[in-house]
Amino acid sequence: MSRIDYCNSALAGLLQSxxxxxxxVQNAAARLVFELGAREHVxxxxxxxxxxxxxxxxxxxxxxxxxxxxxxxxxxxLKSMVQSASASRPQLRQRLRSTSSNDFALPQLRSKFxxxxxxxxxxxxxxxxxxxxxxxxxxxxxxxxxxxHFFCSAFNVC
Length: 158
Known about the structure:
Oligomer: single chain
């Protein structure tokens, strides 16, 4: 399972058909753990193991990286790739509510391919989170709330 998570944030923005082989590997791992047959549903096993589907794991990794960026616990090259919404145009944003929010600015793109870049995918994933999760300063608590949020969204169980 660690091989599925290795550098998976680089897979952000890919089509589901491209991510399907990785999802099949995850499903096969769940079948192996629970000794399920090839025709049995794997979703209850994923629920029991508390494993997020691959596309949600990618979003989770992006949000964890953005949390480290927003709290200054990241390498300088990651911090230089994104810009907070309040710092993007300070002269125009002085009176807006977004100046005090934790949002990050989304860069203007020239192509659909640009949505896969961390400078766009990271802030996009971060801005889609509820404020109650984004404002959590503790990294361990943030990851716990984030996984719960994504788990509820992925499996519609909450």
